[in-house]
Amino acid sequence: MAKYQEYSNGVEPTWCKGCGDFSVLRSLQVAAADLKIPQEDLMVVSGIGCSSRISGYMDSYTFHGVHGRALPIAQGIKLANKDLTVIAAGGDGDGFAIGAGHFIHSTKRNLDITYIVMNNQIYGLTKGHASPVSEQGFKTPSTPQGSEDLPLQPGLLSLSAGATFLAQGFSGYQEELIEIIKKGIEHKGFSFINIFSPCITFNKTNTYQWYRKNLASISQEGDYDPENYQQAMAKLLETKGLVTGILYENKRIEKREETALTKAPLALGKAEFQKLFQALY
Questions:
Q1: For residue 101, what are the CA distances in angstroms to 19, 145, 184, 281?
Q2: CB neighbourhood size of 83 (10 A)
Q3: DSSP readout, 60-100?
């Protein structure tokens, strides 16, 4: 049986002590071990930011991309080799600012990849300015009078874009988080997992204590149906997005090319070459 330590490359994370991303890293490693994913079949792609360093701590195939571009890279990899388990990861700034357009189109395209967002409601790497999901009135060095913008709501955005799997977790609830990530990986389609992962250095508002006080949980509701789209929307509106668990899962499966490009024949016969050549002239 695989152990989660096998998915660690031994590099010590540079995150601040107490950062919620430590929990996310371990949860991902445990989930991969529980699902017995071979390390050579696991690809973790990340963007730019504190949380995007997660790819640098995994012992698997990894790719550290550019700001906001983890999803197009992950999609390209999945299209080239459908046999890989592809995980994209990043922060709320990376995913919902410069990467927001990619998020919407990745959601509706529904390729079989898992997108993990470590949401701390602030830009940590650049020393703490407001992010697209920071609450209105949130004070930072870039918004000393309080943010004037309404916060983007990732869960509602994903559902409106056609999400087939939406879940939310909390770094402080690691056992639940492990199960959520496992379910997201097993889902055949685009899985979006929004994780409340506190920044203990720059965000003194949305702390572990604050989340424990304000988060609701789907698991405590016996009559909740994750296949009910309207109920998922209503729950997000009712809780203002502050809820954990698997909120929605639609098991529709998209038909894709059966043969991975990595296994397609590369040889081009003379007849095929002449046909292509003639089409250009």
A1: 28, 29, 22, 37
A2: 9
A3: SEEEE--TT-HHHHHHHHHHH-TTSEEEEEEEHHIIIIITH
Per DSSP, 20 falls in state: T
Q: What is the DSSP string of 22-44?
A: HHHHHHHHHHHHHTT--GGGEEE
Q: Dump the DSSP string for 180-239.
A: HHHHHHHSSS-EEEEEE---TTT-SSS-HHHHHHH-EEGGG-TT--TT-HHHHHHHHHHH
H-helix or E-strand containing 274?
helix 270-280
> Tokens 């490359």 belong to which residue?
9
- Could you give the domains of the chain? 4-280 (3.40.50.970)
- pTM comes to 0.91
pLDDT exceeds cutoff 90 at 84? yes
Structure tokens at 65: 């991309």
pLDDT digits (tens, 9 = 90+) for 202-224: 999 999 999 999 999 997 777 89
Identify the CA nearest to 53 among candidates 90, 24, 17: 90
